[in-house]
Amino acid sequence: MKGFYRILCITMIGAVLAGCGSGSIASAPAGTASAGADAKDYPGKTIQFVIAANPGGGTDNTARIVQKYLPQVLGGNIVITYIEGGGGTVGNRTVKEAVPDGYTLSYFNEGIVNNQLAGIADFGMDIYDNILIPIIINTSFLVSNKFKTNEEMVKYGKANPGKLRFGIELGTGNAQVAAAWLMQNSIDGTLIDVGAVNGQVAALAGNHVDSIMVPINTVKDYISSGEFHLLAIPARDRNQDYPDTPTLMELGVNIYLSRYYYIGFPKGTPQAIAEKFEAAFKIINQNFDYLEDLRKINVTPVFMTLRASAQYVEETTEVMQKNNQYVVDYEKKYGKI
After folding, report:
1. What structural domains and CATH numbers belong to the chain?
2. CA distance to 168, 179, 232, per residue, from 162 (Å)
3. Distance between CA 299 and CA 70 in Å, rounded?
4. Which residues, in sequence order, are bridge partners of residue 265?
5. Ranges under pLDDT 70 in the chain
6. pLDDT at 199
7. 3-state secondary structure the chain
8. CA nearest 230: which of 240, 216, 210?
9. Which residues pair with 135 in a beta bridge?
10. 185-190 long-range CB contacts below 8 Å, 24 or more apart?
11. Which of 3, 156, 258, 324 is the most exposed, fewest CB within 10 Å of its CB?
């Protein structure tokens, strides 16, 4: 959407969202408990966002924008710590084991759910008392440096069994998409674990793989230079900024991803602190500069209450469970990735 930005308020089944009018973090949102003494002087020191990935990827890019604007309303300041490993498991375990005082929080994506579904982690969203979703994503694309269209990649894969290489990270949506693409096109290809987004981009740039699925903002320069090509988008609808790129479903691959970034409050964190974040995000979603900065990196800011965020996770987890079956089927046919 160019020239202006409309705040997206999402209403989930069984959850009522507050309106998009102005508000104050001094009082709890309607329908929630009183903020109470636990949040009266919060934040009294620096808040740490733990990102369970390396710097420079989509999670980091959005976190830096939240880091810039959220303290303007919430107060205090935010620092970002990067703890990569296990597809996000190591960093999220650090948050799980932290003192639940509101000063060590997770800023991550839906990969934590996929990790649990894939058996990489023995925990998922259950390590949090509350989560808050400020951003949703429909801007991950299937990209190649060798093929200009999906049809070219299908033709090559069928003519060269075992040769087509997808760069993936285990326990994530890109592994699900790659497995679904191969299985539904009846192509014998290889899934290569090259790590998180930065590793995937480097692997494609170095010709170590033939295709990856990554957020568009991480490969924009490669797309502009003609080194990489957009093949498809794993979403229910085409992206309005890239209207010529078809969805995978249009191409006969029955998969789409439900992607988002969230802030996770580990078990034991005072409810009133989570409510302060909820109220603060309601306010910064009125800030044109915040909205525009997120639009520039092709993600969608949203205002969801804590309750609506939990409902959104529950509903999208059902989609992820179905998507993970493609990886299970791939490994049954070709062996462990």
Report:
1. 8-138+258-321 (3.40.190.150), 146-256+323-334 (3.40.190.10)
2. 16, 13, 22
3. 17
4. 130
5. 1-38
6. 94
7. CCCCCCCEECCCCCCCCCCCCCCCCCCCCCCCCCCCHHHCCCCCCCEEEEECCCCCCHHHHHHHHHHHHCHHHHCCCEEEEECCCHHHHHHHHHHHCCCCCCCEEEEEECHHHHHHHCCCCCCCHHHEEEEEEEEEECCEEEEECCCCCHHHHHHHHHHCCCCCEEEECCCCHHHHHHHHHHHHCCCCCEEEECCCHHHHHHHHHCCCCCEEEEEHHHCHHHHHHCCCEEEEECCCCCCCCCCCCCECCCCCCCCCCCEEEEEEEECCCCHHHHHHHHHHHHHHCCCHHHHHHHHHCCCEEEECCHHHHHHHHHHHHHHHHHHHHHHHHHHHHHCCC
8. 216
9. 261, 301
10. 185/154, 185/157, 185/158, 185/252, 185/253, 186/158, 187/154, 187/157, 187/158, 187/161, 188/157, 188/161, 188/162, 188/334, 189/157, 189/162, 189/163, 189/164, 189/165, 190/162, 190/164, 190/165, 190/166
11. 3
Dig out the tokens for 197 from the structure.
């987004």
